[in-house]
Amino acid sequence: MRRLMTIFLAAVCAMQVHVAAAQDVTGALIGTVEDAQGGILRGAVARVSSPALIGGAQTATTNDKGQLRFPALPPGLYALDVEAQGFGVYHEEGIRIGVGATIERSVTLTVAGLQESVLVESAGSRIEPRGSGFETRFGPEDIRAIPVRRFSMFDFIRAAPGVSPTSPGSVSTNSVSAFGSGTNENAFLIDGTNFTCPCSGEARSEPGVDFIQEVQVQSVGASAEFGNMQGAVVNVVTRQGSDRFLYDASYYGQTAGLTSQPVRLTYPGPEQLRSAYERVRYRDATTNLGGPIVRDRLWFFAGYQHLRDYDSQPGTDPAFPRTYEQDKIFAKLTWRLAPGWQLLQSFHDEFWVNPELPTRVRPFEATQRRHASVPAMTFGHLTHTLSSNTVWDVRVGRFVFDREDDTSTGNVTIPSRFDRVTGVFSDAPQTFGGLTLIRTTSKGTINHYRPDILGADHQLRFGGQFEKGEHHLSSIIPTGVRYVESSGQPFQAISSDPSITGGVFFTTSGFVSDAITVGNLLTVNAGVRFDHTRAISQDLPKLHVQGRETDTIVEGLGTLYTWNVWSPRLGVTMKLTSDGRTMLRASYGRSNQGVLTGKLSPIDPAASPTTTMAYNAATGGYTTLVSV
Questions:
Q1: Residues with Cβ within 8 Å of residue 618, at least 6 apart in sequence
Q2: Which of 427, 449, 477, 543 measures 20 to 30 Å from 95, CA to CA?
């Protein structure tokens, strides 16, 4: 269940590698203001502006240590202005604030009579100076510039250092390993809300590529805020509106004439016809619109993606191609309820049809037609900035994954057959059924900054979280029995009643962390998390032979076990150069894998046993018991 993560040391000099703070949908800008002799300037007024700021520019006043702080800034490009009485104005543009990043600036003001203003063009470091973990962030420029298939967010996640795709040749597989973790040990967030599959630990809700603002991958050293995972924390941040109406559209296509056909194979049939790879259709179109509903008070963003990918493999009948279809919709509202109060709400849904691929040994009638709907909602994420030192937020979100695995022909009255000598399936798929996944998350956090306590500055963060995850999986053999043949002769009959299995978990968590900064060069990050989890075998309805739910309820086993786990985290960050462009980081942590409801399925009382009977030539029937 648990493993001890190795100590991770890295000297970070690259511009594109950052380290995570704990913000889910915002970043922070901090700094110090001094005069030309190095004296602290108290009461200087700092101002940040950006198209990403609803309600206009924000201002802050430096404290007794000359520190300026903007603790909750949406991702985007910012301009910073600093002025103090008797001094020239400092102005810097092009400061990129990313989600989870804390960017630092050292501002020097000169006497007004000597120089009226100082203009700086993004001269400061983009490396996060406080966190001790290791993170890669793909911003808007990266997403636009990197050539990818546009299949999903995993086009970018796989490119993060330390992340390994488990199927490098597949563009559709969404399982990855981070620094050797299991593929079921990662956490996937959309705008900070957990949408990880409760059954297998994989991502089940994937926003369209053109809906994404940033992809943030914390490969190792995540803070105590994140638990029930032993791999990476992936946070996909979606786009939002602004005070300007902005529209964009795109279209990508591929024709058969642009697709090579190097292999031709014979496919089953009396004519012994041959076929090559056939590109029937590929169309990918998106359209997005964002802007103000009420200027400076309410913004919207909405998008739609339409994808059609039809093809057939060599050695299959081109009259029955695989017809992958996907439609994604997204909508997001950004509210400025009052000064310091902001509310985010979003809805994402994807509808896809992904039929099983017909091959030479599995013709069209022996395949499944898989199709699903995946609504994911952030009901509300409320943030209140009390001051430049204190911010609290609460959120509630939920996603549902509802997949149906139908027979491609729609006929469930024909039994499936498989020849163990030739390896050919025929007549019908071996099973049909469906899968439902549900995860509900609520979370609240408080951030408070306290300067100069026992000679150090403290960034305190604590909070709590409640999650419920569940799944149920149905599996039905067409007609209740399928047959195994041997070179066309009867061999075995495998039978089972309709089966349904599932599982539920409830997790209540709390965490606290403190980033202790000494002398603006050394930061020690310490934290601990506690998780209380119950794993439950729930009651489930019995299924009809055609897959419908009946009124008969099969009672579950109730609470199977309870986990109470502690996850301590410790990290160190040190600036090796005064400009903050070279950092030394070390992190240690103990992580615990959460309950995966798929591991509860084998003991579910609603699971039906499978009986295998061998063909007996003497009786002319399947009368010899092989196994149950």
A1: none
A2: 449
Q: What is the C-alpha separation between 230 and 177, in angstroms, rounded?
A: 10
- Which residue ranges in the chain fall short of pLDDT 70? 1-23, 113-127, 129, 167-173
pTM of the predicted protein model: 0.87
Task: Output the pLDDT for position 592.
Answer: 82
Segment 255-289, tens digit of pLDDT: 888 888 888 888 777 777 888 888 889 999 999 99
132-146 burial, b if ≥16 CB within 10 A, otherwise e?
Answer: bbbbbbbbbeebeee
DSSP state of 71: E
Contact 565, 534 (CB under 8 A): no
CB burial string 16-33: b at 16+ within 10 A, e below: ebbbbbbbbbbbbbbbbb
Query: What letter would DSSP give residue 306?
Result: E
155: enclosing H helix or E strand? helix 154-157
- Position 545 scores a pLDDT of 86
610-616 and 621-627 beta bridge pairing: antiparallel
Tokens of residue 220, six digits: 């190792």
Query: From CA 560, how far away is CA 10, in angstroms rounded?
Result: 42
Residue 324 and residue 310: Cα distance in Å, rounded? 6
Give the Cα separation of 15 and 122 in Å (integer).
13
Strand partners, 14: none
Residue pair 568/528 in contact (Cβ under 8 Å)? The answer is yes
- Across the beta sheet with 424-426, what order do the strands follow? 424-426, 417-419, 481-486, 489-496, 610-616, 621-627
> What gap in Å lies between CA 213 and CA 140, rounded to an integer?
6
Q: Which two tokens stand for residue 58?
A: 């924000």
Q: Which of 51, 224, 219, 71 is nearest to 137 (CA)?
A: 219
* Beta carbons of 436 and 464 less than 8 angstroms apart: no
If you search the block for the tokens 């089953």, which residue do you land on?
Answer: 268
Three-state SS sequence of 451-510: EEECCEEEEEEEEEEEEEEEEEEEEECHHHEEEEEECCEEEEEEEECCEEEEEEEEEEEE
Q: Tell which residue, 74, 81, 56, has the closest CA to residue 140.
A: 74
Q: Of 628, 611, 600, which is closest to residue 473 (Cα–Cα)?
A: 600
Does an H or E element contain 142, and which?
A: helix 140-145
Type of residue at 443 = K
Alpha-carbon distance 465 to 511, whole Å?
Answer: 9
Provide the token pair at 600. 């509860």
Measured in whole angstroms, the distance separating CA 351 from the mean position of its chain's CA atoms is 18
